[in-house]
Amino acid sequence: MSDRFKPAAQILKDNNYDSAKLIPILQKVQDAYHFLPEDVMRYIANELNISPAKVFGVATFFAHFAITPKGKHIIRVCNGTACHVKGSAGIIDAVKKKLKLKDGQETTEDLLFTLECVSCLGACGLAPVMVVDDVVHGQVTPAKAEELLDEVIKAEAK
Amino acid sequence: MENENFVIIEGKKVAIEGERNLLELIRKAGFNITTFCYQPELEIYGACRLCLVEVDGMGVVASCCVAPRAGMNVRINTDEIRRLRRINLELLLASGNHNCTVCSKSGHCKLQSLAQEMGITEIRFKAKQKETVRDTSSAALVRDNSKCILCGNCVRICNEVQGIGAIDFAFRGYRAKITPAFDKGMGESHECVSCGQCARVCPVGALTPNCSEIEQVFKEINNPAKKVAVHIAPAVRVGLGEIFGLPQGKSIDGKIAAALRMLGFDYVYDTAFAADLTIVEEATEFLHRFTEGKNLPQLTSCCPAWVNYVEKFTPEFIPNLSTARSPMQMMGPVIKADFVEKGGKREDLVVVAIMPCSAKKGEIKREEFYVDGNPDTDHVVTTVGLARMIKEAGIDFANLKDEEFDHPFGTKTGAGVIFGASGGVMEAALRFAAAELDPKNAGKIKLDVLRANSTVKEAELKVAGKTVRVAVVSGLRNARKLLDDIKAGKNKYDFIEVMSCQGGCVAGAGQPQFEGWQARKNRAKGLYDDDAKMAYKSQDNKDVMALYGTIFDKIGGHKAHELLHTHYFDRKDRTGQDK
Amino acid sequence: MATKDIAKIAKDFNDAYKNIKHRIVICGGTGCIAGGSLDVYKAFQTEMEKRNLPCSVEVTKGCRENYLSLSGCRGFCAQGPLVSVGDIFYTKVKVADVPEIIEKTLLKGEVIDRLLYHNPANNQKSKTVADIPFYAKQQRILLADCGRINPEDINEYIAHGGYAQAKRIYLEMTPEQVCKEMIKSGLRGRGGGGFPTGKKWEFARIEPEGKKYVICNADEGDPGAFMDRSVMEGNPNAVLEGMMIAAHAIGADEGYIYVRMEYPLAIKRIRKAIEEAEALGILGENVFGSGKNFKINVMEGAGASVCGEETALIASVDGMPKVKPPFPAHSGLFGKPTVINNVETLATVAKIFEMGPENFAKIGPATSPGTKTFAVTGHIANTGLVEVPMGTTLRQVINDVAGGTTNSDGTVNPEAFKAAQIGGPSGGCLTKEHFDVPLDFDSLKSAGAMVGSGGLVVMNEKTCMVNVARFFLEFTKRESCGKCVPCREGTDQMLSLLTDICEGRGTMKTLETLEDLAKAVQKSSLCALGKTAPNPVLSTLKYFKDEYLAHVVEKRCPAGVCKALAKYEIDPAKCKGCGMCKRACPVQAITGAVGKPHVIDPKKCIKCGSCKSTCKFGAVKIGA
Fold first, then answer.
1. 3-class secondary structure for B394-455?
2. Distance from CA of C443 to the nearest CA of B (A)
3. What are the DSSP E strand ranges found in B2-104?
4. Would an 8 Å CB–CB cutoff place A45 in contact with chain C?
């Protein structure tokens, strides 16, 4: 087997080739490959004896899965009710502007950032909330959002 | 005592007789509510919400999702139900590109007919401007997601009946669509075998058999430099009539022959001729294998979607496939060889096959069926496609007088005609084999089980002290299970007939659409009725037997092998595995 | 493996705990961690080390006199990071505050005034949790141990009586008795529908013996509700114990917890708790020597809120709701009888058996007994989790517990209350006229709203209700699975109609179509998500019709929220004529001489808001 499929093969083995565990398998595969590449999805479908169309369906149904490469840094802006009421729309706009993301575009051209708008992070007390690479920031303002992005950009430049 | 087991539907008592849901009962009561996502053969899905009814104590329910219970009081046409159905219909009409006048499904579309039934003249919702996005990557099928109403029938039949899952839902919510894996075209899908059962259950024009060749066929007919031969498959004669208001399943081959001449075809032949030829070759092949005990069970190879399936999913069974070509692909080279023999040039004869099938369109494109760039069969037109040609030409089909097919390639026996029904190929092959194995009994066999309305049938033929174990299976999921059982040693057969479409070619994707088993029964009966009036076994087809000694030296001989047999390719996907 | 003796574990823990003189608890919930509580924790460790103060970070035999631990979410996230030293409760603690806290509070018992909670409603400061009205006015049963115990130490849970009920039930009660007791308690599912939990168990119990499952639905999809996250982070063992009891009641030997992927800390704590419980033999084979087995698996969601719907949850792969019947109790996960309860429900179970079902049934109204946790957010003085008896009124929750509605600048102003959205996108809104409606399943239903998962978003006068309805529809449209026609197409079309209204294209016909459609989606959708999707539309139409009419007839947004309908004006009294706005305006809509009040030409104005954000004098306002 080519090295490319080895991580996927291990994940399948860890999950006993159980097709009922397709979602956890895809989660691990995404962790390993940073997204769900077509050939890997096809390989998984064959090994689990389910159709590639089903795997593709699952991969596109759930918001967490990406079928195109994600950025190195994941920015999540919460747009749950509490955050919305407290102005998350302005933060989303500011991030989009800062990262020059067009409508419908989630990942920057240079694959440095992916912006995800999520429904609720359950940190409503801190609304509005923005998460930069799993670190939660509360009571964010558009200006603060830009600062947070600048920090990442600066660190990357080094 | 009075039977208590009934439901009251609009005031009328209707007995519960094991119906799987309230909708079936309502239809039995004579209310033929138009719905989209309920198919009697498939699992209940409950998505279109057009079978809504009011049940006392339950309120508004989707009748497909509710089991009938004694004492239920059901109302169908209340103001509330009418309002809800209308809104759901309007939502669907606004959801996509439903421009009836330029849709190939116009006239047979359930969405269109429901809109007519409800007298929709205005849609209150904003049309979601969906451009037509025709996926014409497949020779067999055309997909247009802008017309899709996401009822899921295609997804379910591909999964549940065919066991393939070539298409599935992808994305979510308002972005949801039905697509092959990785959003590719139908023709680029590795899994699709072109059986077209998805199109058979599509209520709208989102999935249809490819009809693009009709234009070319008309052009060929109008080209003075070309001669055009046409032949019709057995199932066509029992499928076409219902489009013209004739009784479903009645064989109307005489009218079809007349119509084909009126359309301008030069030679009007019958694929059943080639079916007899197929039997001679395939059954002879079987007898060899049977005697030698090699490559058994032999699997039939006349269904092109089945051949695709074996190549793509179970290539380990390729040695078991009969090498005999399908009747259509025997007919083409034989007619062309005959034309050349009589001094014509191969490329000056165009062969058009009228088929009940979408996969046949892909079959003629296989490169092994070309000679110096010229195909053995030039075009495949479906039964429904033929109806369109007849209508376009203005032919008053229903009132045509019967005509004969041209000879020699219009000569057939009953054995060739019953190819169109599941079990027919096997019965024809056994008639041949029985006569070969025991010349005294003239091949008469009595195996009614082969004609049963079942998708998996088994039989044993005892002849001349030998026992031939056969199976007949239709639907690819059933076929796969049979193969798996054989591999696991659970079953043993000598000869297996496989048809991709449940019920055989009479239920093919190129036939007029239907729901449920009755249409299959009616059409199969039409074929067996014809059979009863005709010569019994393929050996009795004198024009077929005459080929041996003229075009071919002998049965199974070298020339016969070149024109009448083929080979297969392992096309299994092995992504990520060691080659 | 035999289960370890939990009485001995409790005794060992309590014996060791006697060594402890001072306990410092730092809130380790998602909210406080976001505020830097882990750094505060580390700072305490470093500082104690520096000062050579005896300090332990776990309770073991011979542990030292100062005990430093994290807790789960205390539900007062806006005030985080929270630190308590003994009884003294500090809010908004920073790393820099740590030396002072050790110096003064730990060593001398002095209170640092500036770190105490300051109540914006009455300007009073509170020294202990009990002094804070936010906590004092709650009745915490479910949340009692959240914030009190270390969620990553199963021994402390056991020392507080944990797993004693499970043990008793496994050894002394038949499944039938357990179901009966649950029915007696009257507990109704906290996930939204309010179906009686005991009955749900009974349905699964009477299914023939064989493989059965218990599922904990922790796929909290309602934006604005976070009690499930808090419970999993703060007291994960309570969830596990509830699942064990449910498993015994129905005869299941395996359980699954489906957690949203957006809750990484909850996932971590639940996994840790399972590991610890397995190590003690509480989970596994022959539980408490009963001969029964029970194991729990954790599944992470992949980002689809529809999976909170029961049938979609157990579909596990395609994530789409299925037609019922079959009901999960009959054919659920992998086609086996399955009980699905949400986190809050399950975490309450052991408490019910501890206090006795009869006593639980006495809390709150007879038809909806027990306490309910609400996540109070939005324009409110104290954002947080509020656990009160069912039947408490909206007035009590908003004004007494949560400190009252606030203006947009955060100042408390109970008069500013306009509406509360309860139950999230599936719920409805409550207005001033509902201030005294008891919050319970039945009363809310008759008020056209629902308890739902318990999200309670408070909105002040500056909120446009049409915009709120639109926001929720954006959510449901995005989260609709796409299976059934009314939900897939209907949410999209409702959103489109609402957008027309918000952007000034609405007519009376738009309103009529919207209402018709909303009712149809409610009636004809396949699953609960679709059936409840129109609720925000229908309830705002019911209670704020005049606001819709203002948008449609007068092309005016009374709250000044809808951008397209906004009229930007300059208040001549405030304008100093500095010209900043004129320069900021991208379309040259502003004119005026230097030093003189400027004017906006409404015909040229594109409502971008640049002038408003530029003006230093607050002279630009949005007219209604």
1. CCCHHHCCCCCCCCCCCCCCHHHHHHHCCCHHHHHHHHHHHHHHCHHHCCCCCCHHHHCCCC
2. 22
3. 6-9, 12-15, 52-55, 59-62, 73-75
4. no
Token look-up 């229903």 returns: B398
Asked if B126 lies within 8 A of C493 by C-beta distance, the reply is yes
CATH number belonging to the domain at A73-157, selected among 3.40.50.720, 3.20.20.140, 3.40.30.10, 3.90.1150.10:
3.40.30.10
Between the alpha carbon of residue C213 and those of residues C204, C250, C273, C288, the distances in Å are 9, 8, 20, 20
CA angle (C148 as vertex; C147, C150 as ends), nearest 5: 85
Are both B436 and B498 inside the same structural domain? yes
* Percent helix, strand and coil across chain C, each to the nearest 5: 45, 15, 40
Q: Say yes or no to pLDDT of B1 above 60.
A: no
Residue B170 lies in a domain: yes
Distance in Å, alpha carbon of C321 to nearest chain B alpha carbon = 10
Token representation of residue C622: 């949005």
- Residue C306: band (very low, low, confident or very high) from pLDDT cuts 50, 70, 90: confident
Which CATH number does the domain A3-61 belong to among 1.20.950, 1.10.3470, 3.10.20, 1.10.10? Answer: 1.10.10
CATH number at residue B59: 3.10.20.740
Number of helices (H) and strands (E) in chain C: give both, helices first.
26, 20
Closest-CA distance, C380 to chain A, in angstroms, reads 10
Q: Is C254 on the interface with A (CB under 8 A)?
A: no
Do B181 and A42 make contact, defined as CB atoms within 8 angstroms? yes
Catalytic residue status for B10? no
In sequence order, the 6+-apart residues with CB closer than 8 A to the CB of B455 are: B422, B473, B474, B475, B478, B502, B503
C380: which DSSP letter? Answer: B
d(CA C293, CA C172): 16
**Residues C227-256: pLDDT tens digits?**
999 999 999 999 999 999 999 999 999 999
* Residue whose tokens read 């809750």: C263
Question: In A72-150, where do the E strands start and end?
Answer: 73-78, 113-118, 130-132, 135-137
Other CB atoms within a 10 A radius of the CB of residue B131 amount to: 8
User: Given a cut of 60, is residue C221 above it in pLDDT?
Assistant: yes
Task: Report domain extents, chain C.
Answer: 6-129, 161-361, 371-463, 466-552, 566-623
Which pair of tokens denotes residue B33?
Answer: 């509510």
Domain that holds residue B31: 6-87
Q: pLDDT tens for residues C484-524?
A: 999 999 999 999 999 999 999 999 999 999 999 999 999 99
Q: Which residues of A touch B179 (CB under 8 A)?
A: 53, 56
Phi and psi dihedrals of C393, rounded to 5? -85, 165
- Joined together, the tokens standing for residue B181 give 């894996």
Residue with tokens 């179509």, as numbered in its chain: C513
Q: Which of B48, B92, B174 sits opposite C477 (nearest CB)?
A: B174
CATH number, domain with residue B162: 3.30.70.20
Superfamily of C6-129 according to CATH = Glutaredoxin (3.40.30.10)
Q: Same domain, yes or no, for B386 and B330?
A: yes
Characterize the bridge pairing of strands B167-170 and B177-180: antiparallel
pLDDT 10s digits, B18-32: 999 999 999 999 999
Residues B206 and B218 in one domain: no
CB contact, 8 Å: B128 with chain C?
Answer: yes
Question: Is residue B151 included in any domain, yes or no?
Answer: yes
Residue B119 lies in a domain: no
Q: Are C117 and C58 in contact (CB under 8 A)?
A: no
Q: Is B15 on the interface with C (CB under 8 A)?
A: no
For B232-275, write each residue's pLDDT tens digit. 999 999 999 999 999 999 999 999 999 999 999 999 999 999 99
Contact yes or no for C71/C147 (Cβ under 8 A): yes
- The residue count of chain B comes to 579
